[in-house]
Design a protein that fits this description.
Blueprint (H helix, E strand, L loop, with lengths): L1 H16 L4 H12 L4 H8 L5 H40 L18 H14 L4 E2 L5 E3 H4 L29 E3 L5 H9 L4 E10 L11 E11 L4 H16 L5 E5 L5 E10 L15 E10 L1 H6 L8 E8 H9 L12 H4 L3
Parallel strand pairs: 1-4
Antiparallel strand pairs: 2-3, 4-5, 5-9, 6-7, 7-8, 8-9
The structure holds phenylalanine (PHE).
């Protein structure tokens, strides 16, 4: 009996190995393992055998079945490979040619500068925070001391997700400043934080205006914070960015959420006596900043008698442009690979 099985198996394997199509394979498979196939009839015959032969007979039938199925699967894979090869050959595919070169991407210049600044600030004890880009009117304006009808809203028109007018109105945030209040609500003072991120404004687009751009907010909350601390931090920031000491000057600047508020100008790092970057003035307007307004501290749940702080709003897109000599802000989000692959 066992010998009979071996001969059968060999026969099946030879036929399977030379089968020319999957249809042929299916037919052989059916012949052996089908409902009325060889294996089934072997199993059906078991009860007619003397008891001591039954076990062997059952095992042989199963061995035959497994071996046939295995051989079919192997041949099927071979046939599929051969079909693929034939198809490729017909296409003129040459498997001996080297593969096309992999194109490795590059980091976006905004990502680069963001990461650099994150390194710089975390080394000074700041934490990096994030906030929603779709923001509530309440956080983007109200809690920053910009009530409805405040004229400062005119300079930050944005994209409203529903009709303006209530604190619950959703809008695309016009600056990273709303995270100031979100941070105060959540963190235990004292703390220092930066918030890099995308902001949006309703703008007439040109080389220096874009509806979407990047800012990096900075916020330090502590006791007895003065303008001196603010200037010190800004100088460290500029040294980190431009790798040299940069002279700064403060001009009064109005932002409802700081008091006093300043425009901090940096001495042009690219020239001595005027160039196109500083528009021949030797100063670059870079950093609006100031001491956090008591109303904002209160909106964030802090007692202005106890806590104070400073905040700054770095124009990240602007800084990236300065850093890499990019003359049109629209390149940054234009998605043109010829531009992006230079970094
Ligand atoms: N959020 C302000 C703007 O976008 C900038 C700013 C931030 C000013 C922090 C002062 C302090 O114009």
């Amino acid at each position: 009996m066992t010998q009979g099985i071996d001969a059968r198996l060999e026969d099946a394997q030879t036929r399977i190995a030379s089968a020319a199509s999957t249809e042929d394979l299916r037919a052989i498979e059916r012949e052996f393992t089908g409902k009325d196939g060889v294996v089934a009839s072997m199993l059906a015959a078991i009860p007619t055998l003397p008891p001591e032969e039954r076990r062997d007979a059952g095992q042989s039938a199963n061995r035959l079945k497994t071996a046939v199925l295995e051989a079919v699967a192997t041949r099927e894979a071979e046939l599929a490979d051969a079909a693929l090869d034939a198809e490729r050959e017909a296409d003129g595919f040459d498997s001996t040619l080297p593969p096309p070169r992999l194109h490795r991407g590059t980091l976006h210049p905004v990502t680069r500068v963001t990461r650099e600044l994150e390194d710089l600030f975390t080394s000074m004890g700041y934490r990096v925070l994030d906030g929603p880009e779709v923001e509530l009117d309440e956080y983007n304006f109200e809690k920053l001391n910009i009530p409805a009808d405040h004229p400062a809203r005119d300079t930050q028109d944005t994209f409203y997700c529903d009709s303006p007018g209530s604190k619950a109105t959703l809008l695309l945030r016009t600056h990273t400043s709303p995270v100031q209040v979100r941070a105060m609500e959540r963190l235990e003072p004292p703390f220092r934080a930066i918030v890099p991120g995308k902001v949006f404004r309703q703008e007439t687009t040109d080389a220096s205006h874009e509806h979407t751009f990047h800012q990096m907010e900075g916020l330090v909350i502590d006791k007895d914070v003065s303008v001196g601390h603010l200037i010190g931090a800004m100088k460290t920031l500029l040294r980190g960015i431009f790798k040299k000491d940069i002279e700064v000057r403060l001009r009064p600047g109005y932002f409802p959420f700081v008091e006093p508020g300043f425009e901090l100008d940096a001495r042009c790092p690219f020239c001595e006596d005027g160039c196109s970057v500083c528009k021949q003035t030797t100063w670059i307007e870079l950093l609006p900043c100031g001491l956090v307004h008591p109303n904002v501290l209160e909106a964030g749940g802090l007692d202005p008698e106890e806590w104070g702080g400073f905040a700054f709003g770095l124009g990240l897109s602007r800084l990236v442009m300065l850093r890499y000599g990019i003359d049109d802000v629209r390149h940054l989000l234009g998605g043109d690979m010829r531009f992006l692959s230079q970094f």
